Task: inverse folding
C-alpha cells in the first residue's frame, strides 16, 4: 500500500469524506489500546509508530539492541515478519530463510541479534525467553495489546509528524494520538521539523519523555558512492527520505523510482531498472531493506549484485536519557 498524499496535508475533502469510517476505526483502536496484555518471562521493550508508514522503527530497534548488548544483555527481537509466510514462532536462520519466509525487516534485525518471528506475540515472547533472551525488543506491535510492555517508545518522523491528524482511513494515525501517547513511556523524534515538534509538545503535556535522534548513512558506503550519478530505487514507507539521505551522502540522484512499502520486485521491474541504469550510466543504489528482499530469489540475482545498499543508523542526541529508560524497563527483573 502506498500512503495517499492527502494524509500528509491539511484536512480536506478526502479526509472529511472518510471521517465517519475513521471515527469507527478510532473507537475500536482506542478501546483495544486499553486492554491488559500477558506478562512475558523477561522485560519487553516495544518500538512503535503512531502512524502508518516508515518513521524509523527498525533503525530505532537496532540502536536499542546495540545499547543492550553493550550492557551485556541478551536481546532478542520479536516481530510478526510482515510479508513473510512463516506464522511462527520461529527463530530466523540466515541459511534457510529469505524475505518470502520471514519478511524483509527480520533479515536486517538478525544481523544484530537473534530474531523471533511470530504472528502470536505471546507465543513469540515465550519462544524468545526459552531460547535465552534476557530482554525482548519488539519491532512494531505497540497497538497490539496481547503482550504487556515494560517500555514503549513511539517513533515520530519530525518532518511529517502525524500528517492531517486523522485516524485511518481519513489519515495516517493508527489510533487517536492522545490515547497512544498515554500508553507510551515516551516518543522518539527523528530529524527536525515543526510537525514533529507539535507532537513533542503534546507528549510533554501528557508527562512523557521526549527523545531526539537523527538518521545517518553508513560512512564507509557513503564515501564509496559520493559524487556518483545514481539511479535510486526504494520500496519503503517514505522513499523520499531515502533519496534525501543519498543527497546528504553526496550523491547526484539523477533518477528516482518509488515503489510501495515491502514491494516484491518482479523480474521485469528488475530488468527495466538495470537497462535504465546501463543506458544512462548510473549507479544503482537501494535501501538495505529492499536489498534484503532480493535474497534467495534467483530472478533478482543480477540486480542484487549490481545494486549498492546504503545502510543507515539512528543516533540519539541524549543517549544517557535513553539508557535511564532502558534501566527502568530492565529493573522489573
Result:
Amino acid at each position: 500500500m502506498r500512503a495517499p498524499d492527502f494524509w500528509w496535508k491539511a484536512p480536506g475533502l478526502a479526509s472529511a469524506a472518510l471521517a465517519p469510517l475513521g471515527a469507527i476505526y478510532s473507537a475500536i483502536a482506542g478501546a483495544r489500546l486499553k486492554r491488559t496484555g500477558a506478562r512475558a518471562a523477561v522485560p519487553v521493550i516495544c518500538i512503535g509508530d503512531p502512524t502508518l508508514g516508515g518513521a524509523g522503527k527498525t533503525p530505532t530497534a537496532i540502536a536499542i539492541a546495540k545499547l543492550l548488548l553493550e550492557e551485556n544483555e541478551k536481546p532478542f527481537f520479536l516481530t510478526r515478519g510482515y510479508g513473510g509466510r512463516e506464522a511462527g514462532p520461529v527463530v530466523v536462520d540466515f541459511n534457510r530463510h529469505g524475505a518470502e519466509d520471514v519478511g524483509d525487516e527480520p533479515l536486517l534485525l538478525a544481523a544484530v541479534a537473534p530474531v523471533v518471528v511470530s504472528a502470536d506475540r505471546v507465543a513469540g515472547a515465550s519462544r524468545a525467553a526459552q531460547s535465552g533472551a534476557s530482554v525482548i525488543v519488539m519491532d512494531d506491535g505497540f497497538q497490539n495489546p496481547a503482550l504487556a510492555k515494560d517500555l514503549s517508545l513511539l517513533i515520530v518522523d519530525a518532518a511529517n509528524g502525524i500528517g492531517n491528524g486523522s485516524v485511518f482511513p481519513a489519515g495516517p494515525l493508527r489510533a487517536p494520538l492522545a490515547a497512544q501517547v498515554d500508553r507510551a513511556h515516551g516518543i522518539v523524534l527523528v530529524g527536525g521539523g515543526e510537525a514533529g515538534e507539535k507532537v513533542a509538545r503534546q507528549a510533554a503535556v501528557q508527562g512523557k519523555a521526549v527523545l531526539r535522534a537523527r538518521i545517518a548513512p553508513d560512512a564507509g558506503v557513503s564515501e564509496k558512492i559520493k559524487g556518483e550519478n545514481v539511479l535510486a530505487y526504494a520500496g519503503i514507507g517514505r522513499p523520499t527520505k531515502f533519496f534525501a539521505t543519498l543527497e546528504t551522502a553526496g550523491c547526484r540522484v539523477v533518477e528516482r523510482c518509488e515503489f510501495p512499502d515491502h514491494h516484491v520486485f518482479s523480474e521485469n521491474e528488475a530488468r527495466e531498472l538495470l537497462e535504465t541504469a546501463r543506458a544512462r550510466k548510473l549507479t544503482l543504489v537501494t535501501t538495505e531493506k529492499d536489498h534484503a528482499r532480493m535474497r534467495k530469489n534467483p530472478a533478482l540475482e543480477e540486480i542484487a549484485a549490481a545494486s549498492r545498499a546504503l545502510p543507515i543508523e539512528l543516533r540519539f542526541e541524549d543517549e544517557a536519557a535513553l539508557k535511564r529508560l532502558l534501566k527502568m524497563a530492565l529493573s522489573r527483573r
About this structure: The domain at 219-310 is CATH 3.40.50 (Rossmann fold). The first strand starts at residue 44 and ends at 48.
